[in-house]
Amino acid sequence: MEQGWEDRWKEFHRPVRAGGLWIGPPWDLPPPGELAVVVDPGRAFGTGAHATTRACIELLDGVERGSLLDAGCGSGVVAVAAARLGFAPVVAVDSDAVAVEVAAETARTNGVDLDVRRLDVLRDRLPVTDVAVANIELGVVERLLERLPVRIAVTSGYLASEAPSAAGWLRVRRLELDGWAADVLETS
User: Fold this and answer.
1) 160: domain range?
2) Model-level pTM?
3) Structural domain tally of the chain?
4) Torsion angles phi and psi, residue 81, rounded to 5
């Protein structure tokens, strides 16, 4: 067997930049003085490298700071990035118990304060915040928009040829990366 095979998967996880942040795995060190988000590409969805994640973070960088809900937080990479960008308090929720555990670990690793909770974004009562971010499948985004108690939503998880449609929401900005899209929506 070839030597080093057990660590070869790490070659596929490279640092990226989004919203002025360095986002990378724990075995790569961020450049000195840079705002960083360290995320272990292990047990929950979200390393920061996917176009939808980068687009969400880029768009969040242009949104007025306030409290934030990360709906479907996965690994917590977007929630931690939001905290690094100055959003507070940040609530990160997911229906998957492993994702909630990993998001809490990601927050601890990065030394940021997140309120991480397990809940179903389509059934459970959502916390009231200024901004919400949802990087999940289009159908779920549309159903979530119908019940979000926020004024601004940053959404993604769909192709550039798609767009969320929900009564009472107006798209004010769109970013397309690698065939994927993210939108900033405001209540109309």
Assistant:
1) 5-187
2) 0.91
3) 1
4) -60, -40
